[in-house]
Queue: 3 jobs
Job 1
Amino acid sequence: MRILVADDDELSADILIASLRSMSHEVVFAPNGGEAWRMLQQEPFRLVILDWVMPEMDGMEVCRNIRAMQSSSYTYIILLTGRTDRKDRLEALEGGADDFLTKPLDSGELIARLNVANRILETEEAVRRTNRELQQARQKEIELGATIQKRLLYSPPPRTTNAIETASLSIPSQYVDGDFCDFFAHGNEIVDVFVGDVMGKGVPAAMVGAGVKTGLQRCMISLLTHATDPGLPSPERLLQSLDDLVCAELIDLGTFLTLCYARFDSADDSLTYVNCGHPKIVLWDSLSGVCRLLDTTNVPLGFSDSESYEQRTGQLHPGDLVLFYSDGVTDLKLPNGKRLGMNHFADWVESRAHLPLDEFLAEVEMLRLGGLAGLLTGDDFTCVAIRYRGSETEKDGTLHLWADTGSLRKIRNYVKASARASSLGFSDSEVTELMLAVQEAASNAVRHARPGQKGIPIKVKAQAREGMFVLELRYPGTAFDVKSVPEPVLDGTKEGGFGISIIKKCVDEVKFVFRGDHNLVTLKKRAKGSGI
């Protein structure tokens, strides 16, 4: 065993060191208490023998410092003393000493004391080893629980609907997450999204979240199975059923959860929701480019077993961004030290809401990293982003799109199909000209309607009228002044103007109008040889 000996009495120290080395112990010597304390701060010793009375720092002071020091292993302390008074011995034990050696040393007593020390240290190490093994086993269970939670309790977004596009970011504070989300897809037009946050953290919160998710599924099945009226159960009825099922249990457990349940219906472009104490939904309107917060409608689940639930309904437009998030987001701190809060978060979202969802969530992650040092509670961090797509084709045949990378292809295909079905007798080359013209008009809208933004809602309507094929494109943003576009210069000395020039060459009439907050572009083309 490696032993630190501290004694200012040279003769006494030599005798003790010789005895210890004769027993095959490794000995490190300190001539006084101060030097012993400096050595202990640099490296750990399992056994320390200290003279009680020393200059610079006495044995009792060193003993108290050792006990106050954070260490991964236990240090056994034996005090060398000539004191036999009971009061002194009690004071030493209260100060952290484990045992005593009386001067002058007795070799038999020294061996006995060292044997006791060795047994205690071996027992202490065995206990620590067992605790480490238990901790490792518990850690493996927690990691397994986190894996199970991610694979089985986080449902992927539904693939059976085109009504929404979704992405989520969920970072638990303790491996497993008290936040949860799930989806119910009802055919191609309707999808339900619910997001919850259980009080507390870790495994208990995750288990409550899993139980509530299971309860919602049971309630949905039960209401559909026993329905007397056709159609889906409303969100408020579903939440009332869930409350009847779990509220009493939550109260008995002494816990509660916030929950937001929302239904996206592309048949009438509606959002219907019930918000039970969850942070307010952030809705970014793609037409105006402005964010607003939707009201909370009810108290959290588990607060009252007599709560009645109220739902709210609003209109959506293709391209709208709807955000559900936990208070781990709003509890972030700004550089000025203030809490982010819901209003500031909505302001932050407004300048980034046009981004593709993966890019948007990357920005959310950067926001989290920037405010992580000021996170108030180390809470679970969840953000679920929903891009509303709606029904791309309206009842009157209008194509309604969120203008992103895939929209131009859809617009070209729409125009191609409409032109060929128009019975106006377009040739293949004329159909290609129409497709090229609408491609340039839509590209111009995407590039210039809202500078710096990657997407806008755009409507395209094709119809045969008065012997001509008429295309109308509507999109919000700043007014486009076609007169300000220069004529193209073919020698390459100047850029710009080519798109408008191509449009004019491909169709017979072009008209740009700004009405209210929308641009309206009208393209007209007559089939050659139609005789009109």
Job 2
Amino acid sequence: MPAEIHPTATVYPGTVLGDDVRVLEYAVVGKQPSLARSSTASRDPLPPAEIGARVVVSTGAIVFAGSSVGADSIVGDQSCIRERVSMGDNCVLGRGSLIENDTTIGNGARIQAGAYITAYSTLEEDVFIAPCVVTTNDNFMGRTERRHELIKGPTIRRGARIGGGAILCPAVEIGEEAFVGAGAVVTRDVAARMVVVGNPARVLRQVPANELLQDD
């Protein structure tokens, strides 16, 4: 099936659209970035955006050039995927969420409404991000030249779950199948299959066996 592009949507030349893609009202696909002079993002030329089969790019969403969205994924209303982002198959990006540049999202990830995924982050397969989660990548908050070589977002391993309103500090690693409670502030790595809560986040207990992902 050919792609369905609403008359109010903008799809830039060269963009690759898979079969049965839907680009809804006022969505923008393949946009080139406009960077501030102080931006640390790469300024190399970007290839066209690639949108996999049966993807829905919802109303008002933006997918930048140089990014790819895997098959059967949904890019929610007014959400945004910046440049050089790789999103896997069967993912959900909730309304108003933002994935910043140079980030990798694994298959089956679920990112709920209003979440902020900072640049240079890694989310592995089947990660769950609850609404209004905030991730960070700069311990110096824009001050000093040293920050450029140290900027790094979180790494969230397979099947980990991050509760609503949690904050992940730069470069932390959330272990496989770990669980971060709502409102937690994670300042250090979280071991696999551990539940952490509070500010700063501390270990509460292990994730119960009946909550772990079942391998196929």
Job 3
Amino acid sequence: MAPSLNTHVAVLGGGNIGAAIARGLVAGGIAPAPGITLTRRNAGGLSALRAEGFDVTTDNVRAVRGAGLIVLAVTPQQLNSLLAEIRESVDGARHTVVSVVSGATIAEIRKHLGAGVPVVRAMPNTAIAIRQSMTCLATDRDAREAPEALSLVKTVFDALGRTLVVDETLMIPATALCACGIAFFLRAIRAASQGGIEIGFHAGDALLMAAQTALGAASLLVEGGNHPEGEVDRVTTPQGCTITGLNQMEHHGFSSALIRGIVTSAEKAAVLYAPKAAGPEPGN
């Protein structure tokens, strides 16, 4: 049974990932919809969430004051202005801050909120809405409050999929592999379904077959603890159709394209949040 939070949750940024987190918390029985406040600058974007029973507002300060757990889910470009807006309302004695903002380090967030605020970085993906996320977590090693904060946040995200605690230096690579990665695997499933259409299946049937096959493949690894190549060997026979298809894909760069895509996404994630350097003094 999933643990229930004994505190109100404020998700600052009710976009795709923020909404997915909120829905996952409800689906997992961790918090009721009225116990979660979501914010957006544009009130019109909150209507669907309001209809689902969530508390919604455009007032970040109001959301923070009523919460114990604060989730920062804005874009990297919006983070500094958000932190400046809420800093006077964040209390290190009663708030735990979780940041899902790509590239923003705990040290950079603490510069805005103060050294005494517990901050944990989390990198989930949108499958969190159905409690199937792969979420990487990190905190700074020297913070006295880190063990308690990390334990709280891990308990929450454990109920929303799988978690892995990593060194903070690996959070940008985690963004590429987990958060961006879900799009890569979705595109692979879409391509497989298009292949299915070409060989005779209707579009809906082909998509179902491709998606369920992908789910089965992933389950062999996650549930069985096996290596991908071991499972590949089970379905490839000499002069068979599977090895013929695999070799054709590799001739066209399937593996190398996926690897390069992940590496390129990591390189981009590293520069999404870059604090602006101070400009020259007037007259210089």
